[in-house]
Amino acid sequence: MILLQIADPSVARGVAEHSDFAARPLDRLEGTLGYVYAVVFGSPAEVARARRVVGRAHAAVRSPHPAADGSAPAYSAYDPDLQLWVAATLYDSAITMFERCFGPLPDEAADRVYREYAVLGTALQVPEGRWPADRAAFRAYWDGRIATLEPTADARRVARTLLGGRVGSPAVRAVMPLVALITAGLLPPRLRPGFGLRWDARLESRFSRWLGCLLAVYRVLPRRVRESPRSLISRRYRRRDVG
């Protein structure tokens, strides 16, 4: 999900210049999931609060000038196009992992989930009409973006910091090789070389085995255990200072 987001040059530049999330990957993940849970499952008041939290965080993430090396244009975290792309990666990552674990959703349920995820962007600066109208339109948008994205030096630097296993607690560093393998395996093949990620049949086999084992364990967990991270993250997110 994160690598997909920073495959956009403007997102990568904003992250590189204004964020230290690569050194605090769990904090970034918790913040992202807290926002998702608030706007998808929360009350109108919780949606409004999440919007204020993100708006405060985004206020300084901008530059009126293109990158000196020409790799990215001027940017703002309030740009609807960038917010649409980030929201799209959240939806695609969530539905991809769900369907890998439990199989494809029936069309009616898949359409409902897709409509619900539109709020990830429209709760911020994405006009409602900008979210692709249906799943077919989303797939056309998605495929078009994937076909044209070119990870920049900023993106590669953030990815190396994030996946290199040199930051975070000892526990985080210990699992980062597996996280890096799963992340690379889930990335669209076209984008791997741009991030400098080596991939071959041996790594594909290892990825498939590990992901299969992880999903098999997740499938048999009691529902209350599967949902406990959402409850914990939502409680912590509600306690965040809006500013």
TrEMBL record:
Coiled coil: none annotated. It comes from the Bacteria. One of its GO terms (molecular function) is oxidoreductase activity. Residues 2-211 form the ER-bound oxygenase mpaB/mpaB'/Rubber oxygenase catalytic domain. InterPro entries: MPAB/Lcp_cat_dom. This is ER-bound oxygenase mpaB/mpaB'/Rubber oxygenase catalytic domain-containing protein.
